[in-house]
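Side project, low priority. Logging it here so it doesn't get lost.
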Amino acid sequence: MRRLLIRPGAIGDVILSLPALESARAEYTEVWAPRVTLPLIRFADRTRAIADTGLDLLGITTTRCPLLEDFDEIYSWYGTARPEFREAVAHLPFTFFPAQSLPETAPRIEVPLAKRENFAIIHPYSSSPKKNWPLENFQAVAGQLKSVAWCPNHIEDLYELACWISTARVYIGNDSGISHLAAAVGTPVIAIFISTDPRIWAPRGKHVLVLENPSVAEVLDGCSQHQILERR
């Protein structure tokens, strides 16, 4: 059985879908997803960036994508709400899933076992300014911590980033894909939600603390259990 799994979406969407994707493994499993997320898909026999497959042209400028014809089954979170796409692939063994169908199971990304060091990682970015806690608030939190590493906004390899995040005592960030990444490697996460619904989009796991529109003091209180506050 050759099965193809197609999962578009932002970094967090793909991470939240990892349990569902992995549970759909077959004798041969190929995953097509956004390029940036491919290093996180460790279980597949092969991965491809959606942009490299010609899938985006189906139903628009072409009616064929030869790569699709190599599979016995195709599970797709792509094109579910696009009638022209569904018509173009009607002759193929597609099963469609709603783009926002996310399993409750907490995703887990396996990384090499490493000792947690006594520092916090702060990632003050997200995909939208509306989701960002004020930068000066992050800076105020950082000023009260023993050791802080600031996570960059532009990242080349998410798996390498995951390995580094796994060594931190705690991660602090907005509603972003990197917050989901931190939760998936088991690092304690303080996830700050400003404009989105944490009941839907919060990182999964018992080690995740979700704070909605918090004060600096509330975030520092969340940090206190991790023994990274600067003694005054």
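Brief comment: The CA atoms of residues 211 and 218 lie 8 Å apart.
Revisit when time allows.
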